[in-house]
Structure formats: C-alpha cells, structure tokens
C-alpha cells in the first residue's frame, strides 16, 4: 500500500494538469465519472494516502489500496479504473477505489492530522494518543485519524529509531519517548519522500524487512503485531517493551 510520501509524489507529478480541462473521461469504476467531462481541475491535494482531484463543486477521491498504480502520459495494457485526458496529456489509475465527494473538500478532512501537511499538529496527535492508553503503539501509529499518511514501513522505522518495541502499551511509554515517536512520524515521512525521489528508499531502511539489528548485531524478530496484525520487524534487545 502506498504511504503518504508516495501520494505526495503523485500530486507533484500530476500538478501539470492543474487548471486544465478534462476533454475525455473513462474507466471501469461505479462512480459517476461522466460528470468530470469538460470540467476544469482546480487543484490536486493529498490527505495521507488519499489523492484528491478538486473541481468546482466536488472532489474525486482516489485510494490506491494495496496494489493500486497510476500512469501519467502513458497507459498499461489493462483497462484503467479512471482515465482523464487533457490537451497536454493524460492521467490513468488502476486497481484503486474511486469516490466522489460533494461540496467543499475542507468539510471532509482534518488537515492537522496529516503528518506531511503544513497544518500538521503534533500536540493534537499527543492528545489523541492519550485517549487510547491501553492500545499498542504499533496500532496507534497506523491510525489514520491520528497519523494520516503513516504506513507500515514508516511505523517500523520510527519505532526502531525511538528504541521502542511495537507491542509497547501507550500509557506505559514515558512522555518524552511518546513525543519523540510523534515527531519522528513526520520527520521520517519527509525523509521517505526525499529518498524515494532519488530512487534509494530501500537502502535507507534500518528495520523494515531486515533480519539483523544494525545496533546490536543480533537477529531481528518478525511478527504480526497488534489488532491490525501488520508485520513488525524489531530488535528485542534494544527496542524496549513498555508494559
């Protein structure tokens, strides 16, 4: 599943169509995409893992799910879920969810929970975390209502950086450590973006998919953790378990 930084890259690549009129629309989605025909794109936005194409009175929300892809100014052999053709190119999406949101997009999204948005509010994240004291930190970090855009790669890397075991219970983690985790969720997301643009993201992974701890030279543990049962890679020696 593409994480927030990858969707920011999509936004940056698609911005060439801002202010352009859709001259042809097609796709195998159930959404009423015919209404996009002859409409002008006002802006492209992101909220976490959501890609948003904003028109005058509605917005198209695209979620790439687990295996979604896109192509700009080219097409795959398979039929796109949504295809938008402009005078200066085209934008095609595959294996994704398409929904139309009516009215003002700001009524749908809280931009302050998006870790890559200029309105990101870490203090709000802190308050939200305190409301779920008995949760495992691995589940809380993946909560899109608190850390929009953070996915499993970022979760693993942040917890490794902060020396925290993924099954640690929120209320048992010291306040300064929780503050560090919150900050790193945003910091690492921007580093993720930088590395991905340079096509070198994987070489910077220190925890995700790794088998040996770089700090301890001991075997990593791989386990499905928390209620979400997402894969965690961690060092039981240097990542403290707060329970």
UniProtKB/TrEMBL annotation:
InterPro entries: FPG_cat (IPR012319), FPG_N (IPR035937), H2TH_FPG (IPR015886), Ribosomal_uS13-like_H2TH (IPR010979), Znf_DNA_glyclase/AP_lyase (IPR000214)
Keyword Zinc: yes
All residue ranges annotated as the Formamidopyrimidine-DNA glycosylase catalytic domain in the record: 2-101
Protein keywords: DNA damage, DNA repair, DNA-binding, Endonuclease, Glycosidase, Hydrolase, Lyase, Metal-binding, Multifunctional enzyme, Nuclease, Zinc, Zinc-finger
Protein's UniProt name: Endonuclease
Coiled-coil ranges from the UniProt annotation: none
Alphabetical list of CDD domains matching this protein: BaFpgNei_N_2
Residue ranges constituting the FPG-type domain according to the UniProt record: 206-240
A Pfam family: Fapy_DNA_glyco
Lineage: Bacteria, Pseudomonadati, Bacteroidota, Flavobacteriia, Flavobacteriales
Family that this chain belongs to: Belongs to the FPG family.
Record carries keyword Cell membrane: no
MF (Gene Ontology): endonuclease activity
Superkingdom assignment: Bacteria
Organism of derivation: Flavobacterium ginsengisoli
Reaction catalysis annotation: Hydrolysis of DNA containing ring-opened 7-methylguanine residues, releasing 2,6-diamino-4-hydroxy-5-(N-methyl)formamidopyrimidine
PROSITE patterns, per the entry: FPG_CAT, ZF_FPG_2
